[in-house]
Amino acid sequence: MTGPFARLSDDDLATCVHCGLCLDACPTFRVTGLETESPRGRIYLMTQWKRGTMPFDEEQVRHIDLCLGCRTCEAVCPSGVPYGRIIEAGRADVEDARRPTPKRSISRAALRQVVGHPGRLRAAGAATRLAQRLRLTSILRSGRMLPALRPQFQRPAGNVAPAIGERKHRVAFLVGCVMPILYPQSHDAAVRLLQLAGCEVWFPPGERCCGALFAHNGDLEGAERLRDANMRTYRAATFDALVVDSAGCGAHLKDFYPELKGRVKDLTEWLAEVGLPEPKREVKMHVTYQDACHLAHAQRIKKQPRDLLRALPGVEWVEMRHPDICCGAAGLYSTLEPEMSNRVLQEKLDDLVATGADVVAVANPGCQMQLESGLRMRGSSMKVEHVAETLLRAY
Ligand code: SF4
Ligand code: SF4
Predict the structure, then answer these.
(1) How confident is the model at residue 242, as a pLDDT?
(2) Ligand 2 centroid from CA 87, angstroms
(3) CB within 8 A of 54, min separation 6: which ones?
């Protein structure tokens, strides 16, 4: 790779015909009304830098930083602009060209030195849990965002959870990096559902973070190193599908791990395909669903989670206005860009509270943390839980 902005592809950038049909779907355009905070404006900026027709300017980089990477623009674009690929390459190029900022240097180092190493991450999770119990984390801003940590997710003995009843499938399960620490109950519910659906669930030993957080933050080399390590583990085993219960990870695996083509499945996608047994009890609650951007827009999965939830006996279904607009979480975005993240969140909270639901089901840990924190600040008693937990209520 040579020259500045070499990762960005001229062909990808040229697919934008500047029609502007994506503007009103873009969360940052919706709250600012600024062309510079729109997909079209960002593509224009990256195109000029790539061509060398506009000097690279540290201040203009803010417009790239403020993109959530939610890919809503990609889903509504009539011209097929591969915006996810563009912003990942653009961010990596920008990181090479800019002066490093302390915030971004720290986040890159934290990703490389902690998140990429399961043992260190577990130790950090244990220390945070202890700090929470001693009430020390409220002095940190992120301490207010974090859920109350439970004991971390535990793999079963032998790294295999057997099917309940007849074994019909053997699936690998992505344990991932932060999810087993932040929301172990989501994994527990997901694995239980898979077992109920007749799946033997295998937990790849030695598997590390999938690299999604790295790629979204412009560290493509870090993401590639993790992919190479994980592929050595996956290649050595046989499985029907690699099931993922975190939308951001699933989208990354589908885009970035070509060798797994067709075998990466979101949990809801897989359960809709293989079927769940008859529910055992009623779920008497008003339920709404927040589309995770990386499920709805990147993986184009909207129907399966809704079909599964609506099929639960007793559920009163309520759709919110704009369920597929980003909540402002976007991986590390809520930490790196708290002001814009909060502006985007407020519109989401208005929509959410207006549903009057008892539960909002989500499909991504970042969305869960963001919505929990926002609802808490509004004094709402609405519960946020992973779609797997809501489904498991019926068994
Ligand atoms: S990204 Fe797509 S929808 Fe947006 S301006 Fe370009 S061509 Fe139009
Ligand atoms: S990825 Fe999301 S925030 Fe970024 S330009 Fe597209 S719609 Fe806007």
Answers:
(1) 98
(2) 9
(3) 45, 48
